[in-house]
Structure formats: C-alpha cells, structure tokens
Design a protein that fits this description.
There is one protein chain. The protein is mostly helical. The chain contains one helix and no strands. The longest helix is centred in the middle third of the chain and has 55 residues. The radius of gyration is 30 Å and the shape is rod-shaped. The protein starts with a helix and ends in a 14-residue tail after the last helix.
Amino acid sequence: MNEPDLGTRIDALEMRLTEQDAVIDDLNATITAQWRQIDALSRRMAKLVEEIEEAGSRPGSNAPEPPPPHY
C-alpha cells in the first residue's frame, strides 16, 4: 500500500467514527426523552385507572343519573 492511500483511509475512518459518535449521541438523547415521556404517560394512566376504579366502587355509583332539568 501507498502511504498516501493509508493516510487517506485513516482520515476517512476517523471522519466516519466522528459522524457515528454524533449519531449515537443524538439517538441516545431521543431514546432518553422518549423514555421520560413513556414513564410520565404510564404514571398518568395508572392514576386514571385508579380514579376510575375508585369512582366505580363508590356507593350509589350504579344508580342512574337523574334526568336533566329540561325534561
């Protein structure tokens, strides 16, 4: 191999490595943000399920609602 060819190849590999590191950092940031959002939504959904279960277990919750005043 020629020295210039080897130097050119090493430069190209270093550039690719730098680009890959940037992409990995971007993907990591995206995944972290998505995980935070999923976690927040999961907690919110669990709270809503709990509220629905509590509302269903209250006394009189199965009683029909009175008709609206305009009836």
